[in-house]
Amino acid sequence: MAAAKKNQPVELLNDLEPMLTRLKLTAIRDQLDTLLDQAGRAELNLREALTMLCTAEVARKDERRIQMGMSIAKFPCVRTLEGFEYDAQPSVDPKQIRELATSRWVANGDSVLLLGPPGVGKTHLAVALGREAIVRGYSTLFVPATSLVTQLARAHAEGRLEEKLLHFTKPKLLVVDELGYLPFEANAAHLFFQLVSRRYERGSMLVTSNRSVAEWGGVFGDAVVATAILDRLLHHSHVITIRGDSYRLRTRAALARLTRPARTPQLKPIDQQPGSLLDVARGSVPDVA
Ligand code: ADP
Ligand code: MG
Question: What per-residue string of b and e applies to 68-106 under the rule 16 or more CB within 10 Å gives b?
């Protein structure tokens, strides 16, 4: 009996790992010795130790959830708000972006329109805000506008429109990037309108465009459809218009400045070189422009 009692803690310990696996508490299982060591060294009581173990598990689950959400979102690149330089784009209000980063607009089903010329950071902010939404637990899908309308048109032609509309209606946040780079065909404009109507007051949309809303009639090739789309998008919306220079060109210009070789005079035949001994001999003033 005494021997059995003495063995009990060992048996319990042996049971622990399979139980943690069964309960899917994999972070606790994988770091068990380290976590128990830490709890022992910090002289935590049982409740504190349990809290520490759960914190590790919750952190792992959050990390996995975010990773999964990011891969489902199909972002074209990794961009974060931390990586956005506000100094480079003074027309972007950091306070407004910080507010949007809370994802309250996603919770409320509002829209965000990011407008401005190419290279000013619209896609960067769209991806970064999408990422913030995922971190806060909102399902997100990113799709370039041209791909969206191509997919809708194909589904329409194949009699699967309903299914496709559902696919793009399901995520809590749909990011539609680069609307307006190519004008829509009449049919595509109607399909996009159907999607916007479906999502209206159900889920959020973030749309980036290089066209001002006044030009959307031209983008959709139909002023009536454009108005109907804008009517829904602009109701409960946050419109950010970015003005300024392309970040791409800005960095390219800076790079060019850095890498430009020091100005060296073009080598001309010796008798044509300004300031050459021949000029001195001719008594002319060297041209140093
Ligand atoms: P847009 O979508 O407006 O055409 P992008 O978001 O694609 O522009 O920006 C072009 C490139 O410049 C991207 O690599 C982006 O990360 C970067 N970029 C743009 N603006 C900024 C900024 N203010 N801070 C840091 N990177 C920026
Ligand atoms: Mg872009």
Answer: ebbeebebeeebebeebeeeebeebeeeebeebbebebb
